[in-house]
Amino acid sequence: MQEDFQHKRLRERLFRRERRSVPAARVFAARALLEWDQLGRAEDVLLCVSELATNALLHGVPPGRGFRMRVGLTLDGCLTVEAHDSGGGQPHIPQLSDGDEAGAEAAARCESGRGLLLVRALADEWGVRDRCPGKVVWCVFDPPEPVRTPGPAGACGPAGAPGAVVPLRYVLPDPPGSGRRTPPVRHR
Questions:
Q1: pLDDT-derived band of residue 174, with 50, 70 and 90 as boundaries?
Q2: What does the angle CA 93 – CA 26 – CA 4 come to, to the nearest 5 degrees?
Q3: How far apart are CA 16 and CA 4, in angstroms?
Q4: Helices in 41-181 by DSSP H: which ranges?
Q5: Whether the predicted pLDDT of 147 surpasses 60
Q6: In this model, does residue 157 exceed pLDDT 50?
Q7: Are 55 and 20 in contact (CB under 8 A)?
Q8: Burial class (CB in 10 A: 0-12, 13-18, 19+), 187
Q9: Which residues fall within 8 angstroms of residue 180, CB to CB, at 6 or more apart?
Q10: Residue 88 has pLDDT above 90, yes or no
């Protein structure tokens, strides 16, 4: 269960109730992942950060308040993401029974309601817990399996072995208005 995790690294930040907080939360999490050298599941983690931040803004943060985003690395190598908000209600994923074509079509036409479906699909575990006031929506990512690539003699070795280059597909954006463009990053 999420509350049992012991973090060896933890970052948290408060965000205002405004649209630009979602990309800011993503950059906040990306910087932590980069600093901790935890890039194996960065794309999944960052998409879930975006979804949880968006849900906090749209459904959980009352006017005049903000939300807290927390990103952590546990002692056993799991990444945790938490969105703390002070709003009421409990998030849920719509349940469709197999063969419910009318319900599936209605869900496909909806302009919202898919965020937690993505979180459920990408994260290894997710949930909600109460806080006073509000709630915490969280998700957990198990450590990635080691990437194995052919070395110079055709032998397989872990990423970082001679001949192994694992590209990082997420490029950390520069701060808005800086005018700089971040070059592609490669993890060796």
A1: low
A2: 60
A3: 29
A4: 42-55, 101-109, 115-122
A5: no
A6: no
A7: no
A8: middle
A9: 174
A10: no
52 residue type, one letter: L
Residue type (1 letter), 113? G
Sheet of strand 67-74: strand arrangement: 7-15, 67-74, 79-85, 135-141, 125-130
Q: Cα separations (Å) of 78 from 95, 108, 123?
A: 28, 32, 11
Q: What is the pTM of this model?
A: 0.71
DSSP state of 60: I
Mean pLDDT over each residue of the chain, to the nearest integer: 78
CA dist 154 and 161 (Å) reads: 12
Residue keyed to tokens 């009421």: 88
State residue 162's pLDDT score.
46
